[in-house]
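Slide 14.
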Amino acid sequence: MVVIVMGLLGAPALAQDAPAAAPASLPFPAGARFGYVNLQQVLAGSAEGLAANAKVQELTDQKLAELEARNKELQAEIDASITQAQESQQKLAQGETVMSQEARLSLQREISRMELEIQRQRQDAIGEMDVATQDAEAEVTEFRQQAQIEFETKLQPVIDKLATDTGLDFLFAAGPGMIWGNRSLDLTQAVIEALNATTATPPSQ
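Slide 15: predicted structure.
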């Protein structure tokens, strides 16, 4: 209907006494057979799709665990430096009356140095974790894209065969641009079953 309306809107205006225009030609041949498939449902409902999603999730969990472990290591290093600085401060407070001025000044300089080192450690840790997080996200994204390509490679011949066997002329992907479709033309479940059949483990001889 949208195509027809657009065709009519694009036609030149007709005078009142002009003969009736020929009906706008349909964009598809008469008698053409249609179908549509929800690819997201195929991904979520097929063995191949579930396996692909599981692999992506496994890598995601692995990267999260690695990031968490490294973050704990960096925090432990910072905590150790903080403890050392606190011990030096306590030593300074306890020995203030018995330590020489030179010793006190030396310890104060050491404490200042340790405090600067702690700040540097924190900044370096933040920078390292930012880079590690970006690298992990990029790796997961690349892996997800590759998994999608592999899934589509396995799916395409299944769709080709199903469309050919059922005598379809057009097969559309259901998506955001699709606002309604006749349920009898929905071949999503048929695609899932056909795809699962190609990955089923053959019976042992």
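Speaker note: Residues 71 and 129 are 7 Å apart (CA to CA).
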